[in-house]
Structure prediction request, 145 residues.
Amino acid sequence: MALENIVNAAKSALKDVVSSTSADPISDRDEVLQDLYLAEKAWATNGVYSGTWFVRDGEHVAFTPTTRNGAALTIGGQTTNFIPADRFADYLVNMRAAIEAGEFDREIAGALHGSANVGGIAEVALPPAREGSPQDIRQVQQDAV
Prediction:
């Protein structure tokens, strides 16, 4: 009987870790959305090439969003995604829409209440390239923030 109790306790503990859900996914989303806003604002500032979630290297941006406890959010199963710099502001808009729609709830809950680096299936659509010079595109994107 003792072995059966140990096995049942282990199954219960594992189930709690694997299917950990937040009591309030909207509150969890709000924290991530606040941090996303800071990333958008930093990106829109002239001369800024790095922020809490991103680092620009030439024509690409390494984007690694994290929760406040330091756990990485996965996008398409990746913790770091590389986005063309001229599409990055639009990409952040798409990410905001996906978070607000609840598409990241599993990743956010896992990061905040479960284990770090929970592989997820959330995706953020890469926006199409805009027409115009990179400077004009950046100015339009800055004006939008």
